[in-house]
Amino acid sequence: MSGRLDAGRLYQVLDAQREAKELSWRQLAAEAGVSASLVSRMGNGHRPDLDGFIALVQWLGMPAETFMVWPEGLRDKQRPSLEAQLAPLLRAEEELTESDQQHVLDVVGITLRHIRAKNKGG
After folding, report:
1. Single pTM value for the model
2. Share of the chain above pLDDT 90, in %
3. Domain that holds residue 54
4. Sign of the CA dihedral with 91 first, then 55, 29, and 4 last
């Protein structure tokens, strides 16, 4: 079974960022908190382990989903709601209380329901 991680794309993005920051692979590995052998193995077509993958996408500052391979048609069927996508982003905002976060989600939910109703009727 083929994996659902596009390790080649991840490696390409890492390489582009490495070059942009003028880092060696060893320096990139140290900054990302992974072993130099992990990035070396990736260069030879191997996939990182889960912890390595998480460390690398965090170092890149990119969502993990960027490197996922979705079976045909599955992505749209299993796409989380906008509210579900916003919740972790709101939790990361330290200036927002839980009440503030919920208020934003409520406003988004009400707005989306209004838009969907308008689009169905219009």
Report:
1. 0.61
2. 59
3. 7-74
4. negative
CB 53, CB 11: distance < 8 Å: no
Contact 6, 65 (CB under 8 A): no
How far is residue 104 from each of residues 7, 86, 95, measured CA to CA in Å? 36, 9, 13
Token pair, residue 45, equals: 């077509």
Average pLDDT rounded to a whole number, residues 8-23:
95
Encoded tokens for 101: 């976060």
Residue 73: half-sphere exposure toward Cβ, Cα within 13 Å: 0
Whether residue 88 sits in one domain with residue 49: no
Residue position matching structure tokens 């972790």: 88
Residues 96 and 70 in one domain: no
- What's the residue count for the chain? 122
Same domain, 26 and 48: yes
